[in-house]
Task: inverse folding
């Protein structure tokens, strides 16, 4: 009987450790989702100053809302895959601008004002923004 009691206690201890690690993991997941929500919500608000604000506000706003909702409901993995792949495909249309930017000497130009004679600056910003959005959504693909 003592041996059986020890085995039961051992298994319960294992289960307790497993549950504690799951709780820590879920708390970390909630925290990361809140951080993603705040960052992408700020990205969305900043886009209201852009020449084409609605488009970018919707992209970043969608990532923010999905990150927040993921704390309350299970986001369909298929939908997340579709959105991530869509963002990556869309970013591919801006890849040429990014490559052009990589070839210039003054990389700090990307932080300056938009210059119409240098379309690679805005294209690079859009490319990087889409990659960030895809990365933000890809976090929802983790179990």
Result:
């Amino acid at each position: 009987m003592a041996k059986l009691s020890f085995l039961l206690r051992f298994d319960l201890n294992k289960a307790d450790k497993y549950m504690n690690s799951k709780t820590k993991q879920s708390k970390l997941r909630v925290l990361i989702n809140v951080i993603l929500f705040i960052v992408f919500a700020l990205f969305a608000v900043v886009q209201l100053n852009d020449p084409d604000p609605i488009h970018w506000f919707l992209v970043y706003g969608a990532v923010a809302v999905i990150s927040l909702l993921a704390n309350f409901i299970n986001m369909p993995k298929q939908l997340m895959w579709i959105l991530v792949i869509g963002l990556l495909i869309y970013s591919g249309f801006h890849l040429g601008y990014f490559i052009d930017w990589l070839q210039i000497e003054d990389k700090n130009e990307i932080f300056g004002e938009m210059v119409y004679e240098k379309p690679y600056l805005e294209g690079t910003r859009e490319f990087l923004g889409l990659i960030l959005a895809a990365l933000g959504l890809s976090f929802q693909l983790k179990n």
